[in-house]
């Protein structure tokens, strides 16, 4: 189990990689961009990006705006 | 642009205001001079219809956290035909250059666009752009290879500095965001256009079609708007009104308006009016 802070909320997830996190949150296949500890991680690298307790993850996407 | 230059443009583009009167940002050649925002529409269907009639080739977006508590996909992209539009994400919500740079990097990581509208608000009441932070963010993002379109106050000096920093276009506001007050300082917008060597896009504060026409008559290359269309009683009708006003204003600019006079001058000559 990894204890992560995702979009400001604490979550405990049974995840080894960033790709697992995105899947477990039900965001697989959606146009989401990820940032881990302040650094953008390209989606091609999600599967090789290990997650561990204490990491801060931000998941963002495009919404309506001017 | 001086009159001779305008005449050249007119001569080489007999159909000014139509698809033959194209313009560029970086390598992108565009026919439409209407950038449309995607916020505040009553629903995705009305929004898509408004986008279609507007003829817009460039759509703007914001970047926000995914709502992890909601299973629904609230991403704006699911409603749009893939590949049809160029995307201009903004850095709204940022208050410093560093925050804007972070949002810009996230936006680029989407793989959808390396264009970025730098929008850094100094306070929530006016949402006026912070010129110093905007200049700093523009300098950083230009170095990182972004195509930077800063939203900025209608001040000719800061506009010049943004151009010197490498902005691909300058986007002065007509009035504060979402106010619909129109162009509060046409003199400044005219001066910015006169001095700029990159496209000037009037962004924010417009309310109705005559505001868009005025911006184009002042020589703006394009208009960016969202609220006046999205919050009209009939957004689709207003999108078309804006498109036509932009084309009309553009054609008036290229055609060179008559000078203003203080007193009347009869179109048929005064003598012709006399009954002898």
TrEMBL record, chain A:
Pfam family, one: ThiS
Domain of life: Bacteria
Family matches, as InterPro entries: Beta-grasp_dom_sf (IPR012675), Mopterin_synth/thiamin_S_b (IPR016155), Thi_S (IPR010035), ThiS/MoaD-like (IPR003749)
PANTHER family, alphabetized: SULFUR CARRIER PROTEIN THIS
Protein name, UniProt field: Thiamine biosynthesis protein ThiS
Record lineage: Bacteria, Bacillati, Bacillota, Bacilli, Bacillales
């Amino acid at each position: 189990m990894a204890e992560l802070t995702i979009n400001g909320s604490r979550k405990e997830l049974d995840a080894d990689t960033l790709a697992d996190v995105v899947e477990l949150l039900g965001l697989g296949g959606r146009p989401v961009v990820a940032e881990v500890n302040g650094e953008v991680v390209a989606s091609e690298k999600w599967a090789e990006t290990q997650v561990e307790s204490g990491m801060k993850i931000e998941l963002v996407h495009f919404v309506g705006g001017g | 642009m001086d009159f001779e230059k305008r005449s050249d443009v007119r001569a080489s583009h007999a159909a000014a205001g139509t698809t033959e009167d194209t313009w560029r940002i970086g390598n992108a050649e565009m026919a439409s001079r209407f950038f449309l925002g995607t916020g505040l529409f009553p629903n995705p269907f009305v929004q898509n219809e408004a986008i279609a009639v507007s003829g817009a080739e460039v759509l703007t977006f914001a970047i926000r956290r995914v709502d992890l508590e909601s299973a629904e996909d609230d991403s704006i992209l699911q409603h749009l035909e893939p590949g049809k539009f160029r995307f201009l994400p903004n850095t709204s919500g940022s208050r410093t250059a560093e925050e804007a740079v972070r949002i810009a990097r996230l936006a680029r990581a989407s793989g959808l666009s390396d264009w970025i509208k730098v929008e850094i608000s100094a306070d929530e009441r006016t949402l006026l752009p912070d010129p110093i932070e905007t200049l700093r963010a523009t300098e950083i993002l230009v170095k990182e290879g972004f195509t930077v379109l800063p939203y900025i106050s209608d001040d000719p000096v800061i506009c010049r500095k943004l151009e010197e920093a490498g902005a691909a276009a300058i986007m002065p506001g007509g009035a504060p965001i979402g106010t619909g007050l129109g162009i509060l300082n046409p003199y400044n917008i005219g001066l910015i256009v006169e001095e700029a060597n990159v496209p000037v896009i009037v962004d924010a504060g417009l309310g109705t079609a005559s505001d868009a026409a005025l911006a184009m008559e002042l020589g703006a290359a394009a208009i960016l708007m969202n609220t006046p269309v999205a919050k009209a009683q009939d957004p689709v009708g207003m999108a078309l009104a804006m498109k036509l006003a932009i084309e009309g204003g553009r054609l008036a600019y290229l055609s060179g308006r008559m000078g203003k006079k203080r007193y009347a001058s009869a179109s048929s000559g005064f003598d012709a009016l006399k009954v002898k």
